[in-house]
Amino acid sequence: MDDRTRGDLFEYLLRLGDDRLILGHRVSEWCGHGPILEEDIALANIALDLVGQANLLLQLAGEVEDRGRDQDALAYLRDSVGFRNVLLVETPNGDFGDTIVRQFLFSLHALLVLDQLQRSTHEALAGIAAKAVKETRYHVRHCGEWIVKLGDGTEESHDRVQRSLDRAWRYTGELFECDEIDARLVAQGIAVDPSVARESWDAQLCEVLALATLSAPTETHMQSGGRRGRHTEHLGHLLAEMQIVARSHPGAQW
What we know:
By secondary structure, the chain is an all-alpha fold.
């Protein structure tokens, strides 16, 4: 593997890993606060799945970079400008509808990408994708069922989850952005062009929204920048909480 490919792959793995690390931390904030006991457990399991996927991806990223940084160093010792997650996953939890909509929008796209990533020419990445696709399929099903329950429920639950969808929509465009790093890795069969999932994502989303009697937002202006290290103020606050122990006790082991 030449130096440019190594650098591209490291960046790509950060994108995949950071998406899951930040979203996993966000969802973990629901632990002990779920609307019902079973959902509290379900959200905790989703958070664990995401952090587990992030652990594998960032571990591989550290190996590819080969500069002595493991997954813990990449998770806890980078500032916000060094993170490559999409903006959607760093948005605050809001109410239960906000969290479920955010998770569904992200996981539906992630499932479509992971399904193709199982055939990556990079054996280790393909193996991680094969494991993650099973977990992500559950996330999509679980959150999709909740969107239908809320959307086709009471007038209040319908209105609230519609507002959740409207708020999250401006961040969905970034999921499909493809830059030169993606293009070079796609050409080598290593990565998946995130934009190719658009048609299937739209179709499956429309099916769920129809069952939920919800309307797809029409807003076309999209927020982006996360892949280039330009984040919302929310990420800084999240990292301050997530990284405080590691930064307060550098080098400590448990």
